[in-house]
Amino acid sequence: MPPRTAVANEWHGRDKSLTPNSEKDFSVHTVIIRHGERVDNVWADWRSAYVDHPVDDCPLSKRGRYQAERIAQELFLFKPKAVFSSPYQRCLSTMAPAARRKSWEIKIEPGLGEVLDEHNYPPQYLIPHSIFRYYKDVPFDFDYNPVAKFFSLPAEPNLFRSERRIKRVINELMIEYGLTGMIYMAHRFTCNLIVSMYTGESVTFEPGTMAFLKCVNNKWIVDYLVQS
């Protein structure tokens, strides 16, 4: 991993009034996004209505789809060097509106996925071919070789195992793509860990939360948060 800037212990410089639709230099940011609201958060019996759903991969709720559109608006002026997403449908569907509008190619990275505990193992997401067919109007980087391979991840009986997997993936992505200009679309635990790796801080990631990170005076900080 290349030398990383010093850990930020304070949130200096964050201006909550500024969003990506303001006049700012977005090339200096990296954005961490938690997916929108899941349908099973508001409808416990969703499976009975999704009879053609091949795996137990919960989609977005109506509010989650609205949050995805809001996130696309917030990212309108952003020009990322790379866009990474967990393969779960709730993440891909949250990233899809922005990717469509801006023609961003999403790099699907299984290493950004859920904690693989007894409730989530084996991982329930579509294989790449099915993902590309399901999201046929969304641009993907078909040549991207993920750090963590599909369906090769072991079970994670404790959070230490999950943390080790996510840190390994993020470290390798930092080496390959750098620290700035990234978009990471993931889950609550993953998002919190990425922010902590950059800044040493903790952020409460409700569904649809966006954290814009920035390096100021050799310290990575949370520049501002957006709740969609």
Automatic annotation (TrEMBL):
Q: Name one GO molecular function term.
A: phosphatase activity
**Gene3D superfamilies per the record?**
Phosphoglycerate mutase-like
SMART domains the record matches: PGAM (SM00855)
Q: Which CDD domains match?
A: HP_PGM_like
**Lineage top rank: taxon:** Eukaryota
The name under which this protein is listed is: Uncharacterized protein
Species annotation: Romanomermis culicivorax
